[in-house]
Amino acid sequence: MGRILLARHGNTFGPGDTPVWVGAREDLPLVASGEAQATALGEALVEVGLIPARIICGPLKRTRRAAEIVAALTGFAGETEIDTRLTEIDYGSWGGKSNDEIVAEFGQDALDCWDKRHTRPDGVDWSPPDAVLKANALAAMSDAAATDGLALVITSNGILRYMHAALEDGGPNAKVKTGHLCGAQFDGQSGRALCWNEAPTTPVVRRYFS
After folding, report:
1. For a pLDDT cut of 70, what percent of the chain falls above it?
2. Domain region containing 187
């Protein structure tokens, strides 16, 4: 099985900002703390002596910038690959709204369905469909796992939930905090999680990827 380092981009909201749902159409850049989170990942890889063989990310500003920071810190000599299969979900009419606004308009159970049970709520206008997201998650992981060396995949929280669903041993909570990482071993159409939602520290990187 090929080993993959999966990472979520860092913060897109700063102190005093009200966090809102950020999907494919909300193409926000990283704020200063988000850039610091990407720096922490890059520095942890350097401390362990790991240079990714490939860096793959989604096309949005927040994932591309995180990839750029890690590439520069690690001395990655290749070209960062932009993979549209890693584009965050388009949350439709939920996009740009806070949790409080979503509860007021769609109800607490709809929010809990995604936030706590990790399944798409009924009747939402999100895109693409579940089947496409599942297929994209499998294909992106399969492609990354074929790398000779460590593949670093930087994407978003929604896409990581579909990756989590495709893996064994991921635990009950599919959420990944901003700037956090996950590890997977993947072969063909199946795989297992090595770790999930871990801070990008040197001990974590050494334990699962060195």
Report:
1. 100
2. 2-90+127-209
Cα–Cα distance, 118 to 188 (Å, whole number): 24
Structure tokens at 176: 């990944």
Task: Give a three-class secondary structure readout of 81-102.
Answer: EECHHHCCCECHHHCCCCHHHH
pLDDT, mean of residues 7-25: 97
Q: What is the pTM of this model?
A: 0.97
Q: What is the CATH number of the domain that holds 200?
A: 3.40.50.1240
> Is there a contact between 160 and 184 (Cβ–Cβ < 8 Å)?
no
The band of 123, judged by pLDDT with boundaries at 50, 70 and 90, is very high
Residue carrying structure tokens 């990407």: 38
> What is the rounded distance in angstroms from the CA atom of residue 168 to the CA atom of residue 24?
27
CA distances (Å), origin 76, targets 34, 49, 53, 168: 20, 12, 8, 30
